[in-house]
C-alpha cells in the first residue's frame, strides 16, 4: 500500500523509500495494532527490517540495511520542519502536542516538509 503503490520517483532513493516505510509504520502503530490486539509494537528499525524481508523489491538490499537505516536517520534530522502556534479565540490558550514515546516533551504541532511542499501547506497538514 505505501511502497508498492507510490510514484516511481519515490523509489529512486533509499531516503524516499524509508520515508514511505515510516508512513507505513505509523499506519501500523496507529491502525493495524488497534484492530488486532495480537500485533506488537515495533520500533521503526524493526519495522524497516521486516519490510525489507517481506518486499521482493527491497530484499536484494537487506545485507545493507544497517547502513541504509543509519544514512536515513542522519538524513532525516536535516529535513526542515514547519508548524504552527494555534491559539483559541481569546488568545489565552494554545495547542500543544506530546509524542507518545517515554520521555517525549510538549511542543507546538509541527512536521517534516514533504518534497517540494510549501511551508504553509505543511503547517496546515500538521
From TrEMBL:
UniProt cross-references to Pfam families, sorted A to Z: DCP2 (PF05026)
A GO term from the CC aspect: cytoplasm
Source domain of life: Eukaryota
Name of the protein this chain belongs to: mRNA decapping protein 2 Box A domain-containing protein
GO molecular function annotation: hydrolase activity; manganese ion binding; RNA binding
GO biological process: deadenylation-dependent decapping of nuclear-transcribed mRNA
mRNA decapping protein 2 Box A domain mapped to chain residues: 1-76
Amino acid at each position: 500500500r505505501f511502497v508498492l503503490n507510490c510514484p516511481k520517483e519515490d523509489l529512486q532513493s533509499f531516503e524516499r523509500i524509508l520515508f514511505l516505510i515510516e508512513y507505513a509504520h505509523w499506519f501500523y502503530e496507529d491502525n493495524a495494532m488497534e484492530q488486532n490486539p495480537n500485533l506488537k509494537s515495533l520500533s521503526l528499525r524493526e519495522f524497516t527490517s521486516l519490510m525489507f524481508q517481506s518486499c521482493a523489491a527491497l530484499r536484494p538490499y537487506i545485507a545493507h540495511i544497517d547502513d541504509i537505516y543509519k544514512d536515513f536517520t542522519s538524513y532525516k534530522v536535516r529535513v526542515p520542519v514547519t508548524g504552527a502556534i494555534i491559539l483559541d479565540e481569546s488568545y489565552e490558550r494554545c495547542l500543544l502536542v506530546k509524542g507518545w514515546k517515554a520521555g517525549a516533551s510538549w511542543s507546538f504541532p509541527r512536521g517534516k516538509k514533504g518534497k517540494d511542499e510549501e511551508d504553509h501547506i505543511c503547517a496546515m497538514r500538521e
